[in-house]
Amino acid sequence: MSGLNFTLSTTPSNNEPSGEGVQHERVIVIGSGPAGLTAALYTARATLNPLVIAGHELGGQIALTHEIENYPGFPEPLGGQELVDLMVAQAERFGARIKTFTAVSKVDFRNGSPFRIWTDDGGEYLADAVIVTVGATPRHLNVPGEEAFTGNGVSYCATCDGYFFRDKEVVVVGGGDSALEEALFLTRFASKVEIIHRRDQLRAGAALQKRARENEKIGFIWDTVVEEIMGDRAVNAVRLRNVKTGEVWEKPTDGIFIFIGHSPNTDLFEGQLERDSFGYIITDHEMRTNVDGVFAAGEAQDRIFRQVSTSVGQGAAAGIMVERWLAGHGE
Ligand code: NAP
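A: This is the predicted complex of the input protein with NAP.
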């Protein structure tokens, strides 16, 4: 852990503006996915009255997930938005305050606690402790046409856009759990879904593989990468290359759904928190970052598990640690 000087605020942190419009909080949670909402629940139950700066997408990635089948306690598939609503209600019941449609634009953690945080609505805050749960964003292919046709046939969210592809033919890129899960979801709308994977073996788990292989609407294009996304006003084809034979061809399609993993949303913390070479915030097993009093949880720091249930666990751990940390520093 860092040897940064620790100076706890002597100003009362009862959410009062602390002069010049700066609001002083005991705990600020940055982000509102499963990790953030759980950290809010735990710190709220510890009577710390946390403020959650939710970002522009309350609930994060699960809010855009059609169904969640592997979150314990819910034997029937649960809508992603439904789970977000339940988590918000539970955290609010114990006093968490959730600031929606607002994102953190800048932080200054370098002088220790209280930490300084700015938001994109012009707000400025001090926080005795911070929990960073900013999550991750779908990775892009970075091929010609991808950016130009995003929203016009290029999508990273089947739940959001699948409906527009009723009776159309689409391709899905990727071979992991997300690609297969979203491909299965797309079969509700599309007449045909072809999964383009750069290898001849899927990374996805066995259960999803079985369901995808057994689905008559789903086909596979193996050992193949997308080189270009083409169209006029919207996507009408993709240029593909077989990585083994070198063959290049154009495949007509109405849409392309890209699920090739995620990148953590941690650019904001460059020079403030230690990150690994992929950009994930480095924490110890007690969710501590290299800055004393700043904790991180969920997909911003976890590049291995990335489940709702693991993010919830990490958020709970961060909440517990913040409570102990504040208690240990006289709060
Ligand atoms: P992932 O497991 O990292 O899989 C990414 C896939 O995209 C891989 O098949 C990879 O190919 C391919 N890929 C990566 N970069 C590519 C590129 N530039 N061009 C073409 N293909 C590329 O990501 P994910 O599917 O989003 O899953 C992330 C995590 O969430 C995993 O831990 C997963 O288990 C979890 N998850 C779980 C569920 C569930 O349990 N129901 C659902 C969704 C996600 P290679 O295989 O060749 O590397």
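The chain has a mean pLDDT of 92. The chain has two domains: 17-137+262-328, 140-258.
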